[in-house]
Design brief:
By secondary structure, the chain is α/β, with parallel strands linked by helices. It binds 6-phosphogluconic acid (6PG) and iron/sulfur cluster. It is an enzyme of class 4 (lyase).
Amino acid sequence: MTLDATIARVTDRIRTRSEGLRGEYLARIREAAEAGPARAHLTCGNQAHAYAAMGDDKDSLAEGRAPNIGIVTAYNDMLSAHQPYETYPQLIKAALREIGATAQVAGGVPAMCDGVTQGQPGMELSLFSRDVIALATGVALSHNTFDAALYMGVCDKIVPGLIMAAATFGHIPAIFIPAGPMTSGLPNDEKARVRQQFASGEVGRDELMKAEMASYHGPGTCTFYGTANTNQMLMEFMGLHLPGSSFVNPNTPLREALTVAGAKRAAEITALGNDYRPASEILDEKAFVNGLVGLMATGGSTNHILHLPAMARAAGIILDLEDFDEVSSVVPLLAKVYPNGLADVNHFHAAGGLQFMIRHLLKSGLLHEDAKTVAGDGLSRYTQDAKLTEDGLVWVEGPEDSLNDKILRKPANPFQKTGGLKQLNGNLGRGVIKVSAVAPERHVIEAPVRVFKEQHEVKDAFKRGEFTSDTIVVVRFQGPKANGMPELHSLTPTLSVLQDRGLKVALVTDGRMSGASGKVPAAIHVSPEAANGGPLAKLQDGDIVRLDATTGELTCLSEGFETRIPVEPDLRANQFGIGRELFAAFRTHVGPSTSGASVVL
Ligand SMILES: O=C(O)[C@H](O)[C@@H](O)[C@H](O)[C@H](O)COP(=O)(O)O
Ligand code: SF4
């Protein structure tokens, strides 16, 4: 199938834009690869320290001929998605021992659960934790005793931070090992309904707690299509998972078989063998464009508008908002998974899942098939599903037709003709809006603004009954320099209640939303941020603003707006408590959201 002209043009533009940076990156990676196997550079003392506690594997490690695989783990008990990782290192070590290879836990990385910190001060460390994860992975792999790395992470900032490090250590192969989604509990839309009832005082806290616990009920990734499950999609579209491994539930025989297979595959693709697949060769412009296509076709999380540019830059590739915008304009929305629909990722996987999508996007010429992956050359192998048979783990072609066209469709009959992501421009700055979950009649709003600094102030104004007409709610000083750019997802129930009461409402912020946010139109990541003197700092209550997701306009229409002096914020409350005092350097040095709000790149 001929590659779509727009996809080809965007890829060429990215390749040209990145030429210098990518060239320097690849030269560094080549130098690291040419230096030879990692452990050859270590002294006897270095090695003795590295192997001292490795028991049965000590001799094999000391001989230095067999591949030694570094495990980077984001295990903790706080994320339901990461709790299953507790037992993986032992399983991996035993699997590699079977084939004469070894594995060591190179190090752990922190992982924040955005569900635990949502609406809490801790959320102000969330985005920064992505770069902390990249730094911590660098510390782990700097032991330089590994021929490949297995990265165990699933959720929001964890996969992006691990990718930033995997690209930095791009001379060694990288395989991402998922743990799979939680089994389906109380449907996400039912949970959201009880939250709205609680916000409007119709039910009490005990009713709300019951619903939340029935929704988030066990190990595995939360079942909505948020940032974590968008990560899982990316890892298959970008060829860093084994095919079909993203949405297999934890603590199942198939999940265990895929973990073992991923470990053994890592040992096969090191420089010691004859199928060397370094991460740098997989993380190229084609992989990132394939990731952009998957993001649009699945209606993925807006957080990847921040994460993908940071991930790409670590591999010497420069992504721009115009790339997202143009890919969105030609890639149809093929999946309806909450918040874009009622289904969850388990239903999506059962309907044909990622394998169905990759099959039909390849057929439509919307993906680069000639991509390198950890499983081998060519993305078409990712149209295959993983199955456990009496012959063990096998890969078989996924379904040609969707098993549920309310959840999954072919490009010829999409839910929406485009990916539903729109770049915004105007005298309020540059931002983005995702409309795949917003009703078409709500794509344009022109209304007076109410201006707030904190999300709790919005909820307080709501409780005082102050929202009685169409309103654009502006929450500013939420950018990375101001307070770390938290998610404002906890506003969703309040704004949804206003919307359901018949008001036209929208959110405009230099902050961000959760991948689980959806039905309320939100212009997010507005840049330059208010704390940097951005135009949002000039807005006053009552100004008329126009947000048009069809034309991509974000404009203040009030007289005299342009000549106003930006408001100076008092940000002292964001500089202390819950560890925020440790992140002053991050707030000072963080880059703009338009290039991923990174501190390290
Ligand atoms: O970007 C995301 O996908 C979110 O950060 C998600 O990981 C977060 O945990 C949600 O806030 C959970 O949803 P609720 O807060 O609605 O439970
Ligand atoms: S999906 Fe979000 S809420 Fe669920 S475990 Fe991951 S970070 Fe936590």
